[in-house]
Design brief:
single chain; alpha/beta; five-stranded parallel beta sheet; 12 helices
Length: 281
């Protein structure tokens, strides 16, 4: 297997293309929310009476609005707040929300430590849900996972002038396995996932390798990708939810504009399209 760990990265080109994984290059985000995150919440809190309505709102929050890509626990609180107001009382909701607002890390280990410290019933339910989600994701058959059409072709179109970096908040092992299986890892120069740091931190680390900000493009599908690009003063190219194949078909044109120095006005237009696509659901 090709070694794409950050410590082994050697800059080969003047340009850099950073690409998110779930929901951007790899078509796994929708299926995880449709089959794992939402259904397990309904199961954990006994909400089967309103399963279809709640699932639709879960997808709206996590996939089709400006909160797309939100941390799972923040998304959980948003959904449970709506359920508390609309369908039934959610015991301990304020306590769960308080944890999300005060914890230094929104993760299973941090939540487990808090459950062990406090014995909180609602935090234990949130942890049970999160672990059930992970188990459901692990059990997804490979047949439902795939790369979006046009990703490989897009990478091949830029390989002669740009290095390619995976910049993802997902688990490194899962990303590596998926990209290897889909024949994409061989085209990648460096892989940076949640173990390296935030997406903004990953881009910053790449800039420190000698890339000029106006020679770097962050390709992503969620507002967090746009924010990470803005924080580092690099360009952003959106993969539009529900229009992923068309976005990847246009990607070589976008990369060409990066190469010839005309990306800035085009990038403003693409960012507006991105926000409009999510804001309109």
């Amino acid at each position: 297997m090709k070694n794409v760990a950050p410590e082994h990265f050697v800059k080969k080109h003047d340009f850099l293309i950073c690409v998110d994984s779930d929901g951007c290059a790899v078509d796994t985000m929708d299926i995880k929310h449709q089959l794992c995150f939402g259904p397990r919440m309904v199961d954990e809190w006994g909400l089967d009476e309103w399963r279809d309505q709640i699932q639709a709102r879960w997808e709206e929050i996590n996939l089709y609005s400006m909160t797309r890509g939100i941390n799972r626990f923040l998304g959980l609180v948003m959904a449970l707040e709506e359920i508390n107001e609309t369908y039934c009382k959610i015991e301990g909701l304020d306590e769960l929300k308080a944890w999300t607002q005060t914890t230094k890390e929104l993760s299973n280990p941090a939540l487990e430590a808090e459950v062990n410290r406090t014995g909180s019933a609602v935090l234990a339910k949130a942890l049970s849900w999160s672990k059930a989600v992970n188990a459901s994701i692990a059990a997804l058959p490979w047949e439902v996972k795939k790369a979006f059409p046009g990703v490989r072709e897009g990478f091949l179109a830029v390989k002669d002038f740009a290095d390619i970096a995976i910049v993802s908040a997902a688990n490194r092992d899962a990303v590596e396995e998926e990209w290897e299986r889909f024949g994409l890892l061989e085209l990648v120069d460096v892989m940076m996932c949640q173990d390296v740091g935030s997406k903004a931190a990953c881009i910053k680390a790449m800039l420190e390798k000698g890339f000029a900000p106006d020679h770097v493009l962050m390709c992503g599908d969620a507002p967090g990708d746009l924010d990470a690009a803005k924080k580092n003063g690099v360009f952003f190219y959106p993969i539009l939810t529900r229009h992923e194949a068309a976005s990847w078909e246009e990607f070589p044109e976008a990369a060409g504009k990066l190469k010839d120095g005309t990306y800035a006005p085009y990038g403003v237009k693409k960012a507006e399209e991105f926000v409009s696509n999510l804001s309109n659901g």
